[in-house]
Amino acid sequence: MSNYYVGTTPDQIMQDLTAKYFYGLRRTDNGELFVGKVNQLSKDDGVTVNKPGLAADNFPNFEEGQDFFEGRDVKHNTVYKNLNYEQYRWDDRNIYYYVDDEGQLVARVNQKYVYDENSSSTGL
User: What are the structural domain ranges in the chain?
Assistant: First the structure.
């Protein structure tokens, strides 16, 4: 049985993707660190770039595949008040971020990590 597609096929989409995963990093005023991860090929994943608010406080330059690391100024104040992630990056690797028992931020590449549902350090 053959599959027929109008427009772009799934194989073409996979070849055109330079980065499959979006990783966003944000910090609360209390210093808690949150990492968001989105798989572009998952119909259930999504990302909110700007929180609701004044348009002047939005981050205007979001582009697929373009990394961003300038969410805070030299005094550690947020640059865009509505921006949900102070830093974000795109990658084709499946990375699992977590904080280990010694308080270090660890990244596992293509090796699954099971997050503790009762911990405040679970990924978002």
Answer: 10-93
pTM of the model: 0.72
* DSSP, res 119: S
What confidence tens digit (pLDDT) does each residue in 21-69 have? 999 998 887 888 888 899 888 888 888 899 999 999 999 998 888 999 9
Q: What is the DSSP string of 18-64?
A: S--EEEEEEE-TT--EEEEEEETT-TT-----B-SS-GGGS-----T
Residues facing residue 35 across a β-bridge: 25
| C-alpha to C-alpha distance for 111 and 95, rounded to whole angstroms | 8
Tokens of 57: 């406080």
Rounded-to-integer distance, Cα 89 and Cα 3, Å: 34
Instruction: State the Cα–Cα distance between residues 61 and 40, nearest whole angstrom.
Output: 19
